[in-house]
Amino acid sequence: MIVEPVQRVAGTVRVPGDKSIAHRALMLGALADGEQTVRGVPDAADVASTLTCLQALGAEVRTVGGEIRIRRGTWRSGQTLDAGNSGTTVRLLSGLVAGLSIQATFTGDSSLSQRPMERIAGPLRKMGASVSTTEGHLPITIEGGGLKGIRYRLLVASAQVKSAIMFAALNADTETTLQEPVATRDHSERMLRAMGADLTRSSHAITIRPGTLRGTEVDVPGDISSAAFFAVAAACLRDSYVRLEHTGVNPTRTGILEALEAMGATVTFENKTERAGEPVADVTVRSGELRAIEIDATAVPALIDELPVLAVAATQARGTTVVSGAGELRHKESDRIATIVDALSRLGANIEAREDGFVVHGPTPLAGATLPSGGDHRIAMAMAVAGLFASGRTAIEESAAVQISYPGFFDDLQTLTR
Ligand code: S3P
Description:
Elements: E1 2-3, E2 12-13, H1 19-31, E3 36-39, H2 45-56, E4 60-64, E5 67-71, E6 79-82, H3 87-98, E7 103-107, H4 118-126, E8 130-134, E9 137-143, E10 151-153, H5 159-169, E11 176-179, H6 187-194, E12 198-201, E13 205-209, E14 217-219, H7 224-236, E15 241-248, H8 255-263, E16 266-275, E17 278-286, E18 294-295, H9 307-314, E19 319-323, H10 336-346, E20 350-354, E21 357-362, E22 366-367, E23 370-371, H11 377-389, E24 390-391, E25 394-396, H12 409-417
Helix pairs in contact: 1-2, 1-3, 1-6, 2-3, 3-5, 4-5, 7-9, 7-11, 9-11
C-alpha cells in the first residue's frame, strides 16, 4: 500500500466493532443456556478464527441479517483448532475448553506460534486441567474437566490470561479469586455479569463463582483500537478533526484518548450511552500543538495496542516521549518495540528502543520510505498514519495484514483525506 502526504484530515468514521468484545460475546454465547445475539461483529480475520474454532467445537451459529446468533451445541472432543493470528482466540478458548470434559489441540500461524502460552497453561493446570505446550508455545493440547477453584495472582497484566481463568472458573467446583498486578480491560467481567454470572470485584481482586450463563443481546461498539489510528492522524495534522461515531469508551481502553489530550489534542465526547454494560460515545479528536508525555507500567494496559500509533504521534510532539513498563509489546503479533523503532527510524524519526519500551525525541519531519510491517496489522496501520505527514511516498509492505482487525482501513482513511 502506498500512502501519500496530505495537508489535513477531516470527517466522520464509524469503525468496525470491537474485536475484544466480539470474541467474548461469541465464546460466552457458545457456553450459555439459550441463544446469544451479537450485532456489530467486525468482519475481521481474528474474529473469524474464533467463530471457526467454536463451530468445530460444536457451537451452532446462524447469521441473520447483520447479526450472529450463537448457541451451545453438543461439545466435540479431539478437535484441532486453528487460531490463525489471534492470541485472544487461543488464550480465551483454552480457558473455555479447560472447563469442559473435552480435549482440544490449538495451532496457529507463524506469528502466533512464537507467542508465549505458559502464561495460560500454568493457571489452568493449577485448576486441574491437563495442558501440554510445545516448549511454551503452540501447538498446545488441553484436556479439560474436573476443575477446582483457585486463588491466583497474575504474573503479567494480561486480560487474555485473566479471561481464560474466569471462563474456566465458571465450571470449577468452588469460587476462583484473581489478583491483577495492574487492572486490564474488563470486557469479560462486564459481559459475564450481563449474562448472569456471579462475579464480584474489589479494588484488589475479582471473585467468580461457578454457574451457568444465559444468552443475551450484545451490541458491539466500535473498536477504540481501530479508531486510534484516525485519532492520531487528526491530532497530528494541522486544522484536522475526526469524529469517531459509536466508539467503545470503556475506561480500561481509553488510554490513547487520555494520552492525546495530555499531549495537547482536544478530545470531546457526545451521545454517551451504555450497551450491554459497555460505555459508548461519539468521540471527536482535534489537532493541537503536541508535546511529549511519559507513559509507565500503570498506564500501559489501557493503551497497550495503541503504543505503535502513539509512537507515531510522539515523532510530531515537542520534547522527549518515554514509554516504559511495556515489555509485553515484545510478545504481540510482532515484537512491536523492534518493528515500530525500525519502521519509524526508516522514516527519519529520532526513536530508540528500550528493553521495556521506547524513547522518541520530537518533533522531527518524516520522509517517506518503504516500510516492512512484519505482517502485523497494527504496525501497518500506524505506518499509514505516519505516511500522511511524511514527505514523498510511504510504501507499506504486507499491508494486507489489516484484514486481521480492520479490512476497510485504507478505504476509511481515504474518506478522511479527501
Ligand atoms: C486482549 C488483551 C491484550 C491485547 C489484545 C487483546 C483481549 O492482550 O493486547 O490485543 O482481548 O483480552 P494481553 O492480554 O496479552 O495483554
